[in-house]
Specification:
Layout: E1 20-23, E2 27-30, E3 35-39, E4 42-46, E5 52-53, E6 62-64, E7 68-70, E8 73-75, E9 77-80, E10 85-87, H1 108-111, E11 119-122, E12 125-128, H2 130-133, E13 144-145, H3 149-159, E14 163-164, H4 175-178, E15 189-198, E16 203-211, E17 215-223, E18 233-234
Antiparallel strand pairs: 1-2, 3-4, 4-5, 6-9, 7-8, 9-10, 11-12, 13-18, 14-17, 15-16, 16-17
């Protein structure tokens, strides 16, 4: 089953580079379509049609923010040159802003059937379903919120687009999205973060970060009952 083209990667001229298939476990996933190859002794990237793809090379600025405290913990933050400030660490709260407890559900069979707020912890990482993320009691600190799909898109555009050179991982900016330190050279890492935007009754939009041959930043639809990580953004 193919996903409609608005969820695909595009080059700078607007041409679709990749296609999507549906996987029962992972949901909507990118079909392998942009791959590295050698040309005149240099690595280039080729799309599904065999044409070379140019990776984004836009310069951006990012600095450490003032941080924000929530539920007894102070989070590091980063302030991008476009004015957006984002947590540099994954959210790890078991309560809403008003102090109400978020249910902790470790059984995935139960989680996958829920249509109410829940979270679990895997390898010390807190993960939330979309119902917790979108709850009006607010999962983020005062003055902060879960980014919308449009806000994730705005950040992606500021950083240079959905496909970026790998060397952009080794700085203060993008490695915060991958939970890597600046010297980490892991060959294939990825993270999934919720947006607050829903696509329909069953799906909401998630932000996808992946580093392998290049860096991918993009939005995918995902089952609302799934548990993903959260990064809060300043209002």
């Amino acid at each position: 089953e193919k996903m409609k083209s608005k969820f695909a990667f595009f080059d700078h001229s607007g041409k679709q580079l990749t296609d999507y298939v549906f996987d029962e476990y992972w949901g909507y996933q990118e079909k392998e379509g942009v791959i590295p190859t050698s040309k005149n002794g240099k690595t280039v990237f080729i799309d599904l049609n065999g044409k070379e793809v140019k990776l984004g090379d836009k310069k951006f600025t990012v600095n450490l923010g003032k941080g924000v405290s929530f539920n007894g913990y102070k989070y590091k933050t980063v302030l991008y040159g476009n004015g957006q400030e984002l947590m540099a660490e994954n959210l790890k709260t078991n309560v809403y802003r008003n102090g109400d407890t978020i249910p902790n559900v470790s059984d995935y069979d139960i989680l996958n059937s829920l249509k109410s707020p829940a979270y679990n912890i895997v390898d010390s990482a807190f993960q939330y379903n979309w119902y917790a993320v979108s709850d009006t009691r607010n999962i983020c600190p005062e003055g902060w919120h879960v980014p919308t799909a449009n806000e994730w898109t705005k950040l992606t555009e500021y950083l240079g687009g959905t496909l970026l050179p790998v060397d952009k991982i080794y700085g203060i900016g993008l490695h915060f999205l991958s939970n890597l330190n600046a010297n980490d050279e892991s060959s294939d890492v990825y993270n999934l973060y919720w947006s607050k935007s829903q696509e329909n009754e069953e799906l909401a939009m998630r932000f996808y970060f992946r580093k392998n041959f290049f860096i991918r930043l993009h939005l995918y639809p995902h089952e609302k009952s799934s548990v993903l990580k959260v990064r809060c953004m300043k209002d």
